[in-house]
Design a protein that fits this description.
homodimer; 376 residues; 5-stranded parallel β-sheet
C-alpha cells in the first residue's frame, strides 16, 4: 500500500492524496460505503462501481465470519472474488459488532467469547483469530482487534480497556507479520486509537499507535453517542499526534457535516451506515439540506429527487414518486434512497477534495456545513 | 394502436407480430412485468428499460387508485410521467384486486362497493369509474371492468356473473367512447372473456367479445387454481373464436412452460407476478430448469447465476453469493432474483418469437417445456 499527500489546505488541516492498493487507487479524502454482508444493502455491485463510482468499500468481519463463514469466502478466492467487487476493500476486525450485536459472554486478556446474535452459537475471537479471518477474507486494508468502549464510560474502565487494546494490538501485529496474504495480493493492517473521551488516554493511545509505524492509523470509539463537539476535540487532539504522512481513518463517522468538519481536522477516510440506513428510512441528504421524503409536503412535488445530482436516480425519479414508493413500503424506495445518499456522499468527498486542491476548503466547508444541516 | 401479424408458425397457432402504441412498438409475443404500485418491485425503472429491455409494463389500477390516488398521478400528467417509464403501459381495471384483496361489501349490477385492504376505507367502483380512473392514469391499453370468478365456481354463479360482466362491458365501451384521453395520447380498451371453466359459457363470452370489434381481446379468470390442462383447453377454445387479426392477452399467466404452451395456442400477451414474486422467495427460472437458490447445494457453487444469461446480474453474481444474500435476508437477493427472472422471461419471449419466425416453434417448444419444468 502506498499513500501520498498531494495537497494541503492552507486554512485547515485538510489534505488530499492518493492511496494505492493492489486493487487500485483511492483518492482521499474518501467515504467507504458499508457492505455488511459483502454487499451494500439495496444496491447492485455494478451500480456501486459504475454509478456511485465508489473507489473502495467496507465489509464486516463479524457478519461474514458468521454467514456465509470464512471457509466459503476463502474457497471462492477471497471476498473480492466472492462478491465480484474488484476494487479495494477494507474489513473491520469484528470487535465492534461483538460488543454491539453479539451476546457477550466474557472478555479476557486472551480475547472474547461471545454468542452469535443469529443463532446463539458460541464463538471465540482473539487478536490472532481476527487476523486469520481477515487473511481469509483478503481485504486490502484490515483492522486490529480492539475493544470499542461505550459512551459514557468510567475512566478506570476506559484505562484498563485501552491497555488491553494496546496489548491486543501487539499480538495482532506479531501475528500479522508471521502470516501471509492468502489470495495473491498484499494486505495492510491499521491499528486503532481508543481511550474514550479522556484526553490523556487518547494522547497516550495516539502515541502508542504512532510508534508502530503502520501503513495507516484509525481512530475508533467515537460517534458512539458523545456530542459532536467532543468528537471533534478528540479527533483534533489525536490527529496532532498521529504521523502526518500516514492515512487516518475515523471509524463509523458520520453525517455529511461531520465528514467535512473531520476532513478539516486531518481525517482522510470514513465509513458509516448513516447514508444507507437513514436512507432506507426515508432520510435523503442533498446539497441544500436534509429531506424526509415521507413527508406530506412532497406528495405533489414532481421535481427530480435532486436537480443537478450526478447519479441516475437523482434525475430518473421525482420526489412525489419516491414518496409514493416509501408510503407503499416498496423495496424500490430503499434502493433509490440508498443510491441517492451514497451518490451524495461520494460527490461530497469529491467536492471536498477539489476545494482542498484549490486551497479554499476551509471557507467552502464553513458555508457548506450550514446548508447540509438544514431541514427542508 | 396498430397490430400486425408478421409470422405464423406452421406447426401450431403461434403468431409473431408488432403492436404499435403512441409510446412505441412492442414485439409479440410478449410478457409484461408487473409494476403493482407503478414500478416493478425491487427493480429500478432504468434497469427494466436498459437491462431487461422490457418493451411494456403493466400496472394495477386498484393499487394506484388507493395510493397515491388518481389525482396525484393525473396531476403529474399521467402514469408515464409519474413513474418515468416512457414506453407502453397496460393497466388492469381494478376488478381482480377488488375480489382478491379488498374486503368486499357488495357486488350489484351497478358495480362493487368494497373496503380498502390498507385502511378499510370504503370505495365504489363501477364500469364508468373504472374507465375514468384509467383515463386519468393514461395507460396505452386499458381493461374493461369485469368480475373474475374464483375456481372452482358453481355453473349458475358463473353464468350469472358472465352476464353481468357482459353488461358491464357494454357500459365500459359506451363510457370509453364518450370520454377522451387526458394526456395527449390515445388509449385502447380491451374487453375480457370470462366464463370460468365452462365451455359453453366461454364460447358464448368469446363470441360476445369478438362481436365488439375492439383493438384487442383478453382472456381472464384462468390461472386461478384450475389444472394447467384445463387452462390450455379453455384458452384453445377461446382462441378459436376470437378474431385472428387482433392481439390476444391471457391475463395472469404464468410459468415459463405455461407461456410457451399458450403461445402455441395463439396468445400474444402475458402478465404474471410469478417471475417477480417467486424470485423474491428464491426461485430462479433458467434455461436448464428451476433453481431454489436457498438450497444448501449452491453454498460453494461459484459459477455465474446463469452462464450465457443476457442480463448483467446473470454474470455479475455467483450462485454461492446470491444464496448467501438470501440466507442473510439481504434486499439485494430479491433485486438480483427479480432482475434474473424478468430477464429470463423477456429472453424466452424473444426466443419464442425467433422460432415462430423461423417456422420451428412447435418443435422447439416441445423440447423447451420439459427443460423449463425441471428442478435443478
Amino acid at each position: 500500500m502506498n499513500f501520498s499527500i498531494e495537497h494541503r489546505d492552507p486554512g485547515s488541516s485538510a489534505r488530499a492524496g492518493s492511496l494505492i492498493t493492489d486493487h487500485g487507487l483511492v483518492r482521499t479524502p474518501f467515504f467507504m460505503p458499508v457492505g455488511t454482508a459483502g454487499a451494500v444493502k439495496a444496491m447492485h455491485i455494478r451500480d456501486l462501481r459504475e454509478d456511485i463510482r465508489a473507489e473502495i468499500m467496507l465489509s464486516n468481519t463479524y457478519h461474514l465470519y458468521l454467514r456465509p463463514g470464512t471457509k466459503v469466502i476463502a474457497g471462492a478466492g477471497g471476498l473480492h472474488k466472492f462478491n465480484g467487487w474488484d476494487k479495494p476493500i477494507l474489513t473491520d476486525s469484528g470487535g465492534f459488532q461483538i460488543y454491539s450485536l453479539a451476546h457477550i459472554r466474557k472478555i479476557t486478556d486472551d480475547g472474547v467469547i461471545f454468542q452469535s446474535h443469529i443463532d446463539g452459537s458460541r464463538h471465540h475471537f482473539t487478536p490472532e483469530s481476527a487476523i486469520d479471518i481477515q487473511r481469509d477474507l483478503g481485504a486490502d486494508i484490515i483492522m486490529a482487534f480492539d475493544e470499542c468502549t461505550p459512551w459514557p464510560c468510567e475512566y478506570e474502565y476506559a484505562k484498563k480497556s485501552l491497555s488491553r487494546t494496546h496489548r491486543w494490538l501487539d499480538r495482532c501485529l506479531e501475528h500479522f507479520d508471521k502470516t501471509d496474504c492468502k489470495h495473491g495480493y498484499t494486505q495492510s493492517l491499521f491499528p486503532i486509537v481508543q481511550g474514550s473521551t479522556f484526553e490523556d488516554l487518547r494522547m497516550q493511545s495516539a502515541e502508542y499507535i504512532a510508534s508502530k509505524d503502520s501503513a495507516g492509523c484509525a481512530i475508533g470509539g467515537l460517534s458512539v453517542g458523545e456530542p459532536a463537539e467532543m468528537m471533534y476535540a478528540i479527533t483534533s487532539l489525536v490527529c496532532g499526534i498521529l504521523p502526518q504522512e500516514k492515512p487516518r481513518y475515523l471509524m463509523g463517522v458520520g453525517t455529511p457535516a461531520n465528514l467535512l468538519e473531520c476532513i478539516a481536522l486531518g481525517i482522510d477516510m470514513f465509513d458509516c451506515v448513516i447514508p444507507t440506513r437513514n436512507g432506507r428510512n426515508g432520510m435523503l441528504f442533498t446539497r441544500d439540506g436534509i429531506i424526509n421524503i415521507k413527508n406530506e409536503k412532497w406528495k405533489n412535488d414532481f421535481s427530480p429527487l435532486e436537480q443537478g445530482g450526478d447519479v441516475f436516480a437523482d434525475l430518473q425519479y421525482t420526489k412525489a414518486f419516491v414518496r409514493h414508493l416509501f408510503i407503499c413500503g416498496e423495496m424500490l424506495s430503499a434502493m433509490i434512497a440508498t443510491t441517492h445518499n451514497l451518490g451524495f456522499y461520494i460527490w461530497l468527498m469529491k467536492e471536498a477534495r477539489k476545494h482542498i486542491q484549490e486551497g479554499d476548503f476551509a471557507k467552502w466547508k464553513a458555508e457548506m456545513v450550514i446548508k447540509l444541516m438544514r431541514r427542508l
